[in-house]
Design brief:
single chain, about 200 residues, alpha+beta, seven-stranded antiparallel β-sheet, 3 helices, 12 strands, globular
């Protein structure tokens, strides 16, 4: 998953191909890893506690989030935005529909490149993303799955540092064997073998 221009947050979702009701779960992953975001060599778990993705490599500054929910219409209204506004929840819904899958819940995403910190008093704060142009994460798919990444359109709270820009997803054509890494990152699109998507 590549931050093309730098400073862009992405919401990462993954659903098992056999049952979209089983999906990558931040809340199940945190107790397994003992961290707020996996480090290379650690796995992302589903809501059934099965490994679905392995984080293979992270050459970014390493700030990512598993605490914030995906932005949605209600979030924007709470921030005083009454007009329609793109959201990660909407991007996910449209991608799921394009795959011909039934409607799914919006899971807690893995917010790649999102800089959220928790201080000793338990206070959370978000900072503009510190990832640079070309910074990337490499994931390996451990189950057959649909992976959807939304380039987060949040522009009310300054979580992305360079405006809303593209992410890119590169997919290794050996992923179906479960032995090859998944390369890339993109805004709202499912992963296909030997493909790259940008938006």
């Amino acid at each position: 998953m590549v931050d093309v221009d730098g400073g862009q947050v992405g919401d990462l979702f993954a659903f098992t191909a056999d049952d979209p009701g089983e999906y990558a779960s931040a809340s199940h992953t945190r107790p397994s890893t003992g961290r707020l975001f996996p480090r290379p060599g650690q796995n992302v778990l589903t809501n059934l506690r099965r490994p679905i993705l392995e984080l293979v490599e992270d050459n970014s500054p390493g700030y990512h989030d598993t605490l914030y929910a995906a932005c949605d219409a209600a979030r924007y209204r709470s921030l005083g935005v009454d007009a329609p506004h793109r959201s990660c929840a909407q991007n996910l819904g449209e991608s799921i529909a394009a795959l011909g899958l039934p409607g799914v819940v919006v899971p807690q995403p893995l917010n790649v490149f999102m800089d959220v910190r928790v201080d000793s008093d338990g206070e959370m704060s978000s900072r503009p993303a510190s990832s640079g142009a070309g910074d990337h994460l490499i994931f390996r798919a451990l189950l057959d799955c649909y992976v959807i990444l939304s380039s987060c359109p949040m522009d009310i709270v300054p979580i992305s540092s360079g405006g809303i820009t593209a992410l890119a997803i590169d997919v290794d054509d050996q992923l179906s064997t479960g032995t090859a890494p998944l390369r890339g990152s993109a805004p709202g699109g499912e992963l296909q073998p030997s493909s790259r998507m940008t938006a």
